[in-house]
Write a structure and sequence with these properties.
It contains nine helices and 13 strands. By secondary structure, it is an alpha/beta fold. A seven-stranded mixed sheet has the order 1-2-3-4-5-6-7. The protein has a six-stranded mixed sheet with strand order 8-9-10-11-12-13. Strand 12 (204-207) and strand 13 (213-214) form a beta hairpin. Bound molecules: zinc ion.
Length: 299
């Protein structure tokens, strides 16, 4: 069977794309569920006659397993709406396998990237949102979608569920230090924008990877990235060889270990994270997203 293959060009990936996965689902409220394949995580919402699903997981087989799991916990209601939290294929690449007839909602900038990229299996956006905040209602399911500026990927949307006091923000803050290389994170404004979500009333935080967590660990995540940014700037002063992984890892582990060494994945990931962030300061950031007034992206 030939799978939708994203932007892969080699047939060798077919077995990866079709590899079966076991997803586990946890109910968060009367209408809200979270689902994970053990690493990636997303949410879906029961509406009046249908289901609103966020993202798709990152392979056709995982998208199909997502559909199967939704059908199991909410029988008889089709997925009528899929919301892309951002453009990345590992989260939102396979709506064609999850719900081929659904309306696809995303930020207008995500919509442009999706259209231009034309990845196999990532359905085009049918309902593009413009602006920072949207009180949405899809078939009776009401919540708020927020794009307060560039944090990760293009046109990133977070979701706030006021009734549940719950924030969902995919691929931004994690409940640990497993950020790896932080590809396509927009460092200049990332912490400032993520901290701005603390003006919302939420107690639970659902990240796009790993376990459901709470407001305190969301704050700790902001603190960690901010401290990493400061440590990476100190590396210049110390003439640390900033292109060398082991040198940067040793430096930031020494700087941050006392305060953040308890975070899961700190020893394995902090060196890669530091390599990425130190280059932000070296180069000045990546494009318009990393300027002080990134609102220009919306102009
Ligand atoms: Zn992403």
């Amino acid at each position: 069977m030939s799978e939708h293959q994203g932007i892969f060009t080699s047939d060798a990936v077919q077995d990866y794309l079709s590899a079966e996965a076991t997803l586990s689902t946890e109910q968060l409220s009367d209408r809200l569920w979270t689902i994970s394949d053990g690493k990636y995580r997303t949410i879906f919402v029961e509406a009046d006659q249908s289901v609103v699903a966020f993202d798709t997981f990152g392979t056709p087989a995982r998208a199909r397993a997502y559909a199967t799991e939704i059908k199991r916990v909410i029988p008889g209601k089709p997925v009528s709406t899929v919301i892309y939290t951002h453009d990345h294929l590992d989260h939102a690449g396979f709506a064609a396998d999850l719900a081929p007839d659904a309306n696809i909602v995303a930020d207008e900038m995500t919509a442009k990237v999706v259209a231009m990229r034309a990845a196999d299996g990532q359905l085009p956006v049918t309902d593009a949102l413009s602006g920072a905040e949207h009180k949405v209602s899809y078939d009776g399911a009401e919540f708020v979608l927020l794009n307060r500026g560039p944090v990760h990927g293009t046109g990133h949307l977070s979701a706030w569920f006021e009734e549940e006091k719950l924030l969902f923000s995919s691929d931004t803050i994690l409940p640990n230090a497993r950020y790896g290389l932080m590809p396509d994170y927009h460092i200049a404004n990332f912490v400032k924008i993520m901290r701005s979500f603390l003006d919302l009333d939420f107690e639970r935080f659902v990240p796009g990877r790993y376990e459901v967590t709470d407001r305190d660990r969301f704050v700790e995540g902001c603190d960690y990235i901010e401290a990493m940014q400061i440590a990476c700037q100190a590396a210049f002063l110390g003439f640390v060889p900033i292109w060398v992984h082991d040198a940067m890892a040793g430096f930031v582990q020494n700087e941050l270990g006392e305060r953040f060494g308890h975070l899961d994945g700190f020893m394995e990931h902090s060196g890669q994270t530091a390599i990425r962030i130190v280059h932000h300061y070296l180069m000045g950031g990546w494009g318009l997203e990393d300027t002080p007034e990134p609102g220009i992206l919306l102009a």
